[in-house]
Automatic annotation (TrEMBL):
Entry's Gene Ontology BP terms: carbohydrate metabolic process
Pfam families from the UniProt entry: MGH1-like_GH (PF22422)
Listed SUPFAM superfamilies: Six-hairpin glycosidases (SSF48208)
Source organism superkingdom: Bacteria
Mannosylglycerate hydrolase MGH1-like glycoside hydrolase domain boundaries: 94-407
Protein name: Mannosylglycerate hydrolase MGH1-like glycoside hydrolase domain-containing protein
Length: 550
């Protein structure tokens, strides 16, 4: 392991990348190095080669658009920045590596807000576009996480808050025509669900390409859309947090009330207690019974309690007839006869989409279902070793790459999953995760990494994480600080002190934990969280583990 540490110290990823555009890319590489200088080395290089390629292709997705400051683009055939993805969840991941680019990407949407309050659904070199709403990940959640993770820039928060308040008014004015309190879909593109059977016999874009208009002659539109409604619930929940942070206590209270009203509307209209699922409701009051990744979108918006999420794991997310494909998550339930496995075109009718993959993480972590989350991450990491194009889709059966290339959600998924599964991850709560789990050699028994060493600078401290098959070590500024058995996640606070351990594998992980000069004997089960309180380890959370179903 010492050899791997020495090998990593000789690597400067910013010098191994050949910039395609020197004047643009050199400052980005300097920002990468200054922010965290993240990289890793392992016994085999199958995954580290893909990681290095991902960094290079990420630079291709960052470019000046309407100003001379570069912003993140979606990549592939998508020439621009989309609010549903690039400007929200992609940006959340990017903020750990290139925070200045992420912040500029957020602000570009606020700067291009229309006078009536509508935010553009995309931004390209031709300007801002307003044809549809195209919402998935709540912008306010992404903005709040960026603020928490990157030094709490107050000017940024004020600008984004003002823009999001206006957009909430716009949505309630134009997308609540049935007066239910639910947000309505007028077209397939409103949710980014291209070719999904959810929107069969519905136009791709709103009536006359006007986001305020619904086809008056459609017998089924508008849909009461659970994902759009959950988005606004979560949006309002985080607007309350932001208002509180900005000293607007009265506004914060109003946002909390509005959020709860939206949540109640979601469950009143879009939740089917028989199927235990969320569906669109058409103009006739019928459930649109297509089981899709809408479920993951809704759950990622924090609408469920822990009991409900555990139930959804057993019934749907970890059910191999539904969404627990060999390479999860398919965009339509596997047992739906409308499921289409083809991956050669832009489709949300079956293929596993990288956007669905990266959006799912928040749902699992919000409910502290870490073991189950890793079961969904491991197959994707295996597929990553065979990636060369960074496609939009994967086959849920084989993990083979599908439509388009140089797609930023796929690129960022590589960077995120390696850090989340086996590396060092700074969190919005000002903690640092060191996850002692290695990629599992599931595909043909081929070794993915073997032991690895991950490097990252956080809060001015240079960390090296030695991740072995039996034991893990945390090195802090070249001093051994802590060691623990593999299968655990160590959580450090922003001062670099170990505060908790989490069981990351099914069954107990037992062994010696070393912190400074202190030694402890512990046995921690999957998903259990133990905290170091006044020199003693205590179990503070014990939810158990939900097993897969069939």
């Amino acid at each position: 392991m010492q050899q791997l540490r020495e090998q990593l110290r000789r690597i400067d990823i910013t010098k191994r990348i050949s910039p395609g555009n020197v004047s643009k890319d050199q400052p980005l590489l300097a920002q990468w190095k200054q922010t965290g200088n993240a990289f890793f080395t392992a016994e085999t290089d199958a995954l580290s080669k893909v990681y290095e390629q991902a960094v290079a292709r990420l630079l291709d997705c960052i470019k000046p658009t309407l100003t001379d400051k570069p912003i993140l683009h979606e990549g592939g055939i998508y020439y621009g920045c989309w609010l549903e993805s690039t400007g929200t969840i992609n940006n959340e991941l990017l903020a750990r590596f290139l925070p200045e680019v992420a912040e500029e990407t957020y602000l570009e949407f606020a700067r291009n807000q229309r006078e009536d309050g509508m935010l553009p659904y995309k931004i390209t070199v031709d300007g801002a576009s307003f044809r549809q709403i195209q919402l998935v990940t709540p912008l306010a959640r992404s903005v709040w996480h960026h603020y928490q993770l990157n030094g709490k820039p107050k000017h940024f928060l004020v600008t984004m808050y003002d823009a999001m308040v206006k957009y909430d008014d716009w949505l309630m004015t134009y997308r609540n025509t049935r007066k239910t309190g639910c947000i309505e879909a007028f077209s397939a593109f409103d949710t980014g669900h291209d070719l999904s059977p959810r929107f069969w016999h519905v136009a791709d874009t709103p009536h006359q390409n006007d986001a305020t208009q619904c086809n008056p002659h459609s017998p089924i539109l508008p849909f009461l859309a659970p994902d759009l409604t959950a988005n606004v619930y979560c949006q309002r929940k985080y607007l309350a947090e932001i208002a509180q942070e900005l000293g607007k206590q009265e506004q914060a209270a109003k946002w909390r009330l509005k959020a709860e009203q939206t949540r109640q509307a979601l469950f009143q209209y879009c939740y089917d207690p028989v199927d235990d699922f969320f569906y669109d409701v058409d103009r006739q009051g019928q459930f649109v019974r297509v089981q899709s990744d809408v479920l993951l979108r809704v759950l990622a918006c924090e609408v469920a309690d822990d009991e409900m999420f555990a139930r959804m794991l057993g019934k749907y997310l970890l059910n191999t007839r539904k969404f627990f494909a060999k390479y999860p998550f398919p965009s339509i339930a596997l047992d739906d006869p409308r499921f289409d496995p083809h991956t050669s075109y832009n489709s949300w009718a079956g293929p596993t989409n990288f956007l669905a993959i990266i959006r799912a993480a928040h749902a699992f972590e919000h409910h502290q279902r870490y073991v189950e989350q890793l079961w969904t991450i491991q197959p994707i990491v295996s597929a990553m070793t065979r990636m060369s194009r960074f496609s939009q889709t994967l086959s849920p059966w084989t993990g083979q790459e599908g439509f388009t290339e140089a797609y930023s959600p796929a690129i960022l998924c590589v960077l995120d999953f390696i850090e989340r599964l086996s590396g060092i991850l700074p969190t919005k709560e000002q903690t640092i995760w060191f996850t002692g789990v290695l990629p599992y050699d599931a595909d043909h028994g081929e070794k993915i990494t073997g032991a690895l060493v991950y490097r990252r600078t956080v809060n001015g401290k240079c960390y090296e994480f030695v991740n072995g098959s039996e034991r893990c070590e945390i090195w802090q500024d070249d001093m051994l600080y802590a060691a623990f058995p593999s299968g655990l996640r160590a959580v450090l606070n922003e001062q670099g002190e170990l505060v908790s351990l989490i069981g990351m594998q099914y069954g107990p992980v037992a062994g010696e934990v070393m912190v400074g000069q202190q030694m402890y004997q512990l046995a921690i089960n999957g998903n259990e969280q133990w905290q170091l309180i006044e020199g003693r380890w205590q179990c503070v959370h014990q939810p158990g583990v939900v097993a897969p179903s069939y």
